[in-house]
Amino acid sequence: MRVTFRAAYGGIEYVNAAAEQVANARQQMLSGKRLEKASDDPAGMQRAIAGRAELRSIETYTRTSDSALAKLTTLDMVLSGVIEKLQQAQVSAASVRGSIVNQQQRDAAALTLEGLRDSLAADLNTRFRGAHVFGGAEATTPPYARVAGSWVYQGDAVPVSVEIGAGRTVAIALDGQALAQGTDTTNVLNELETLIVAVRAGDNVAIDAGMSALGRAFSRATSTQSQIGVDERSVSETQLQLTSSRLAVLTLVSKDEDADLANAISAMNRADVAYRAALGAVGRASNHSLLDYLR
Amino acid sequence: MSGLFSSLSMAAQSLEAQRAGLDVAGQNIANLNTPGYKRRRLDLAEAVNGIGGVEVLGTRAARDAVLDTRVRTAIPDASREGAILNQLSLVETTIGAPGQGIDGRLSAFFDAFASLSVDPTSTVARDGVVLQGRELASAFNATATRLASSVQLADNGVRDAVGQVNSLSQQIAALNVAIAASGGTDVDALKDRQQLAVEQLSSLTSVAVLARPDGGVDVTIPSGRALVIGGSKYDVSASTGGNGLATLSLGGADITGELTSGTVGGLLYTRDTLIPGYRARLDQLAFGVAQEVNTLHQSGFDLNGNPGTAFFTPPAAVAGAAAAMTVSATVQGNPSLVAASQTGAPGDNQVARALANLRLQPVLSGGTTTFAEGWAQLAYQVGSDVDTARAEQSSLRDVLGQVQKLRDQVSGVSLDEEAASMMKFQRAYEANARFFTAVDSMLQTLMNTVGRG
Questions:
Q1: Using one digit for the tens of pLDDT, what is the confidence trace for B23-48?
Q2: Which of A38, A182, B175, B279 has the highest local Cβ count within 10 Å?
Q3: What per-residue confidence (pLDDT) applies to B162?
Q4: How far, CA to CA in Å, does B332 sit from each of B22, B127, B130, B346?
């Protein structure tokens, strides 16, 4: 075989190829990424995009569940207040039941009940970030308003829920009527109005009826609060699952996207050796020829 | 029987022959780095002039027609893949890293609807939806623009390459004329240039070469249409077609579809097949997003309780949907028109939830693919095409390199060989000079003897 000048002195393409490998390995080490463009690993790119989308979805669920938890905590606190006020109203009504109570005591109890009624109405009209939470989907209108001497529900029965995970929802706004009235003929605020009149009048039969209505409202409130508690726990559990899922997806995405530094260092060393060898081979070719031995 | 004067003549002729040998070695060394140069060999023969000695028959270039043909046919495929790789490397930059391209913008857009579902009465959340909608539309617009720009770059490349084809055809035709005019003598330098020009032409487009009896070559494209016939060349012309792109014609016939290899073939394939394929996928994705979002948005009610309008300006057709994508001007001007409610109640969030969940719905490709998967498929297609072009180019360059090495073994110049050749002819020259001196000395002796007598 004839070894020509081009064969002996060529080889710059090998030097370039080795230099490119060094640059690629160096880039991976600097950026920490093995997937910087689609052609680095097309299938890996496809998986990484799907993984990133899933990651964003999990992060959205996490944010939504944080907001839902804040609303549920508010609902829980308000319901605790409602329950306490219903109990106080029952105690006030019971204290003036019987025949030995004088008018002054009945008036005092009626005033207490009026205060509790107003406070309860305020609770049912609670707003969170500007939206009423006991009016169903009618978030901008106060759920309860006194119209012509009677308390009227202005919300609707549409529950408002949010996704806290794939296929998992929790209510963040409640149907106030289901809480305040349930299957009764009127809502607890109107029941309190009737009870206040009965207390002032010393009408024991009406007081008993009013106390029964308060008892049913109490049951509905405690039941609703229990459901809120279940939802709060569900949100907390879901958040734990989201954290685990996020970690799992992140690990998968990282396998596709991130450089294995040990491998990158090893690859860079190999590329560096190949580069030096190529440089040496090309450089050495120019050192000797027959011309050096001719005199 | 020859005399001393004949010996002197023979020695002088031999000295001339050895000097010619030294010239050939010098010529080869001078052209060590000349592209297309074929090493020359000196043909010597025993003289048949009656007095003996050596005769220079001439010099020949070391050519191997088979290997020359193999090199010429290997060039276009490697060039084609190189052109595809160069163009797609630019296209690839439009895809970006995972989560940083349109996929990231899609996620942010649907995130904004998720935030709105938590606070359906919030005007701030509505502003966020409109903002992210605009960002998404901008991302689609920018990607469509970059792909359109890549098509234009490939087209510019085609036009440049056509100019080079015509220039090389001109060179080959001129060389044909010069070779024919030389009458077959001292044509090796011209033939080297001719072959180099043909190989450069092959890197632009595959060509068929037919040798002419006068030493010239006729060159045609694979379909048989002539680029060069003897001293005549036929220009490829690039005219702008209805789509604004170059249409190539030769001899009045449209040859755009006939040039499938070489740089021109690679550029045309990228311009007419690969990038339009990516644009079609992008348009389908944009059309799907606009259509699905609009359908859900129009099924709801805005913050004022009025029926929802189209969120994105409805695309007229799939083609061009990415470039034309924009958030409806009325929604941009009044974010309270963003529909989140299904019932009309301001606190209802069912439409916002449905829109947020759209990211998980397989709505593309006949209900089998999500938007993120649609983008991932486009990214995969681009990455895979670049990867394939790179592997093909590498493989074809290796093949070309191997064939070039084989040819180089026949036609290339070896410095060691030339050094040995120099020494050989130098020594032969010295020996012949010594012979010349000896004969001259004998003549002197004879002359002196005759003179004394």
A1: 999 999 999 889 999 999 999 999 88
A2: A38
A3: 97
A4: 85, 9, 6, 19
Query: Looking at the domain assignment, is residue A221 inside a domain?
Result: yes
Residue B265 shares a structural domain with residue B164: yes
Section B392-411 average pLDDT: 92
Q: What is residue A110's three-state secondary structure? A: helix
Residue B300 and residue B231 share a domain: yes
Judge if B56 and B97 occupy the same domain: no
Do B194 and B77 lie in one domain? The reply is yes
pLDDT at A167: 86
A161: containing domain:
73-251
Query: Are B156 and B46 part of one and the same domain?
Result: no
Task: Please give the residue of chain B at the shortest CA–CA distance from A158.
Answer: B348
Rounded to a whole number of angstroms, the distance from the CA of A38 to the nearest CA of chain B is 4
Q: What is the pLDDT of residue B451?
A: 65
pLDDT at B430 over 50: yes
The verdict on residue B375 lying in a domain is: yes
Residues written for chain B: 453
Are both A45 and A153 inside the same structural domain?
A: no
Q: In this model, does residue B236 exceed pLDDT 90? A: yes
Q: Which of B312, B285, B292, B266 is nearest to B379 (CA)?
A: B285
The residue range of the domain holding B298 is: 71-399
- The per-residue pLDDT for B453 is 53
Q: Does B345 contact chain A (CB < 8 Å)?
A: yes
Residue among B283, B330, B325 nearest B304 (CA): B330
Pair (A81, A132) in one structural domain: yes
Q: How is residue A158 written in tokens?
A: 């549409």
Q: What is the tally of structural domains in chain A?
A: 2
**A 215-274 near B (Cβ less than 8 A):** 253, 256-257
In DSSP terms, which residues pair with B228 in a beta bridge?
Answer: B219, B233
Q: Among residues of chain A, what percentage have pLDDT more than 90?
A: 70
Q: What is the CATH number of the domain that holds A240?
A: 1.20.1330.10
Q: How far away is chain A from the Cα of B224, in angstroms, using its nearest Cα? A: 35
A12: contact with B, CB 8 A cutoff: no
Query: Residue A85 above 90 pLDDT?
Result: yes
Query: Please, which residues 140-199 of chain B have a Cβ atom closer than 8 Å to chain A?
Result: none
Average pLDDT score over residue span A21-36: 87
Is there a single domain that holds both residue A34 and residue A16? yes
From the list A35, A53, A138, which residue is nearest B347 (CB)?
A: A138
pTM: 0.87
The single-letter code of the amino acid at B435 is F
Q: How do residues B298-339 score in pLDDT, each as one tens digit?
A: 999 999 999 999 999 999 999 999 999 999 999 999 999 999
Residues within 8 A of A (CB atoms), B 122-151 only: 122
B341/A contact by beta carbon, under 8 A: yes
Domain match, B76 and B153 both: yes
B269 with B317, same domain? yes
Q: Are strands A144-147 and A131-132 parallel, antiparallel or unpaired?
A: unpaired
Q: Which residues of B touch A173 (CB under 8 A)?
A: 347
CB neighbour class for A73 (10 Å; exposed up to 12, middle 13-18, buried from 19): middle
Residue B448, min C-alpha distance to chain A (Å) = 39
Q: What is the pLDDT of residues B316-326, one digit of tens each?
A: 999 999 999 99
Give the count of beta carbons closer than 10 Å to the beta carbon of residue A276: 12
Residue B1 has pLDDT above 50, yes or no: no
- Asked whether residue B407 is domain-assigned, the answer is no
Question: Are residues B393 and B430 both part of a single domain?
Answer: no
> Judged by CB atoms within 8 Å, which residues 141-180 of A form the interface with B?
156, 158, 160-163, 166, 172-173
